[in-house]
Amino acid sequence: MKLKQTLSAITLSLMAAASHAGEVEVLHWWTSGGEAKSVSVLKGLMEKQGNSWKDFAIAGGGGESAMTVLKTRAVSGNPPSAAQIKGHDIQEWGRLGFLTDLSDVAREENWDSVLPEVVTKVMKYDGDYVAVPVNVHRVNWLWVNPDVLKKSGASIPTTLDEFFKVADKVKAAGFIPLAHGGQPWQDITLFEAVALAVLGAEDYQKAFVDLDMDVLSGEGMTEVFTQFRKMRDYIDPKYRGRSWNSATSMVINGEAAMQIMGDWAKGEFAAADKTPGRDYLCVAAPGTQGQFTYNIDSFAFFKLSDEEDRKAQKDLARTILDKDFQEIFNLNKGSIPVRLDMEMSRFDKCALDSMATFKTTSSRGGLVPSVSQGLATTSYVQAAIFDVVTNFFNAKDPNPEKTASKLARAVKAAM
Question: Which of 30, 73, 176, 206 allows an S-S link to 215, with CB 3.0 to 4.6 Å?
Fold first, then answer.
């Protein structure tokens, strides 16, 4: 009942400023349970303002397929109103001249004051807003089925050494220790969690943001690859090609004990009517306590020719950052609001822990961008990292030391 009342309040306030009708076509890859529910809320609010919503959904958790389609549409002169784009890719689309200026909306809504600086830097091109953030995800989470751990006589691991000991107990008890999907972006999600644990935030930043060749090829990176490969021993043989939400379901239904995945996984637990602290646990990935690997979901807004559609586009920008929508969306999605002035009483312990760590790491250090989600570096360097890491993970007889050197060479060539 409260949700319906809140939605009605949002609609009335937004409709007051909307006396026109246009169409927004929105490209995204949010097609799983919790994600799809979040999109439906945004669609409903836009339609209640008098605008029509044209859904442009392309399945695929990492968005690779969606980006291929988007490039074709944009080059042919028929881009959508907004597309789910993030990180350095926003800057690339800006340089190509495809994105529209949202600065008038940003000034009206006071975005510079309510958004953290780490977010606004990503949303602007050449000083102007061209994209709108939806949320902040923490990527370095460990999702745990406490019942499986109890049956295995194991406790929650807080370091990599503890993780492998716990995984041995889980495996001996007949369960899968680590649920994982063998898609490149999922492999990198696991890799970056191990890298943060081994290297720490400072050297993680040097390696994947500053692209420091000494760190990329050094002993620390060799150890990262060694520990990362060891994870393979605790993943079931059917992991290749599995979707991330299917891996989450393995934890939900008690087939697997743990999963290292961003907090979009929480939306799957919520969709399955599971309660945090009872049915599942959310803790920092082993060895990454007090650190925060961030992913910012956002929509980049494209230049449109139709005046009514441009007005609807601005309605969409305002609606995304509306406080009440931020609450509803992030409760569904599993993430935390991107606004710093949010009231968080309706959020669960996972979200409260995430917000607290996000604010602490923003001011004291330990906040690092996700490689797997395209926040750390350019798409060219990201592709080089993906190639080296996934080939190593799936090789029959990999060499960590040689792979660290190979990673440095590949990154340097892609720069």
Answer: 206
> Counting every residue, how long is the chain?
415
Tens-digit pLDDT string for the chain (415 aa): 454 555 555 555 555 444 457 999 999 988 877 778 888 989 999 999 999 999 998 876 567 788 888 999 999 999 999 999 988 899 999 999 999 999 999 999 999 999 988 899 999 999 999 999 999 999 999 999 999 999 999 999 999 999 999 999 999 999 999 999 989 999 999 999 999 999 999 999 999 999 999 999 999 999 999 999 999 999 999 999 999 999 999 999 999 999 999 999 998 998 899 999 999 999 999 999 999 999 999 999 999 999 999 999 999 999 999 998 999 889 888 899 999 899 999 999 999 999 999 999 988 889 999 999 999 999 899 999 999 999 999 999 899 999 999 999 999 999 9
> CA torsion sign, 144 to 148 to 152 to 154?
positive
Angstrom distance (rounded) from CA 384 to CA 414: 7
Are 81 and 26 in contact, with CB atoms under 8 Å apart?
yes
Q: Please, is 330 exposed, middle or buried when counting C-beta atoms within 10 Å of its C-beta (0-12, 13-18, 19+)?
A: buried
How many angstroms separate the first and last alpha carbons of the chain? 53
pTM of this structure: 0.86
Q: How far apart are CA 347 and CA 334, in angstroms?
A: 9
CA dihedral 370, 372, 376, 377 (to 10 degrees): 180
Residue 305: partners with Cβ closer than 8 Å, 6 or more residues away: none
